[in-house]
Amino acid sequence: MNLVILGAQWGDEGKGKVVALLSENYEVVVRYQGGSNAGHTVVINGEKFILHLLPTGILHPHTVGIIAQGMVVDLELLVKEIKEIESKGLRVRDRLFISDRAHLVLPYHKILDSLLERKGKIGTTLRGIGPAYMLKYARKGIRVCDLWDKDRFYSLVKDNLEFVEELCKKVYCENFELKIEEVVDRSLENFEEVKDCVIDTSQYLLEKREGILFEGAQGTLLDVDIGTYPYVTSSNSSALGLSAGTGLPPKFFSKAKFYGVSKAYTTRVGEGPFPTELKDSTGELLRERGGEYGSTTGRPRRCGWLDLVALKHAVRLNGLDGIILTKLDVLDAFEEIKVCVAYQLEDRIIENFPASLTLLEKVKPVYKSFEGWKESTYGAVDRREIPKKAWDYINFIQEYVGVPVVMLSTSPEKDKYLWLEEESYEGANIG
Ligand code: IMP
């Protein structure tokens, strides 16, 4: 059966470890949206890897990794990432396929990203992601396949540079200095390193049919259509992005399992509404215990209690079959643990995640409180190592969102997890 692993919050849920673990049983691992804005941290045999563009599953020597058409690819970074892993003795290029339809991220996308941030702060990763998708949808994007034809590539870059230069000068009053030869030559050099990996990946996947794990980046609440728009990334980082991002028909996924990864609390980086954010010492404690600093930018993450209204939104719109709960151990030290079960706006109770930013910015969380278990769950691999009070917390989550918690991840180490029986869950929905 094919498996889809998605972020069920604002990203950074711990998908890297989960995918690294589960992909052991799959032949092919696919990334299908976003780009180097992602940062998947995986610890294998005590060695830490941070992957930005490669699918995490590629760290298993037997898996084929796919960079599918919905991604925006910074070849400079991709080549660097590949070489870094290959320097550790793990050959990547004979197991990697890159879609010829994927769009490129070029240096001027990053310049534009910084300028756009100056006018209206989203708190992006400054990796050029928004501008790359912006030019893609403006039908000015440049795709991997364009690199096969040097003249065509040159003229596309020339057009882009003229467009971006005008934008920079007229809108931002900024001089723009980027030499076309530098952009073109560097891109062609990088292409030379990976050109044997370039194929029509949707054809490959259609023929493969089974044994595929689809690895979402970012998270549902950062999805451009169902997230906290405009404080989102520029791709469909929920299940909505699967078909367009892979080039596979929606039917292809009808028998797949969909699991969403969620922390036992909530974090987000960048700007935007976050109803359960804690700007006090409790939030600080979550950040310190959880090591909540961005793996791509190093920024401290904003922290707060688990928001079940938001999580249920993710469960419904992704059609999740189960939740993979991570970082429960971060809550081990707390006397009291809260979860948000609704939002309040004056005398109105809101139970569905609202589209309107005006509402999201004003709502107050309605909390249910749990007594802390005050025992270590760190590294637990057996149900008996999880205290009763922690089970009460987990059971409440699954009952509220209406799907089971299928797995607990209990430390960054790959072998520290508990697989919970899906069948034993009876499925009450008290939300
Ligand atoms: P961009 O994707 O760099 O354009 O950033 C848009 C928003 O998505 C910002 O709030 C980023 O902090 C956030 N974001 C992008 N990628 C990730 C990620 O991998 N984890 C968490 N947040 C992310």
Could you describe the 3D structure shown?
With 431 residues, this protein is of the alpha/beta class. It contains twelve helices and 20 strands. The strands form five sheets. A ten-stranded mixed beta sheet has the order 9-7-5-2-10-1-11-15-19-20, sandwiched between helices. Helix 5 crosses helix 6. 49% of the residues are buried. The C terminus is likely disordered.
Briefly note the structural class of the backbone. alpha/beta
Summarize the amount of helix as a percent range. 25-40%
**Biggest sheet features:** 10 strands, mixed
Inertia-based shape: globular
Q: Can you count the helices?
A: 12
- Cα-atom Rg, whole angstroms? 22 Å
Strand runs, count: 20
Enumerate the distinct ligands. Answer: inosinic acid
Distance between the termini: 30 Å
Detail the poorly predicted runs. Answer: 424-431
Strand percentage lies at 15-25%
What does the average pLDDT come to? 94
Strand order of the largest sheet: 9-7-5-2-10-1-11-15-19-20
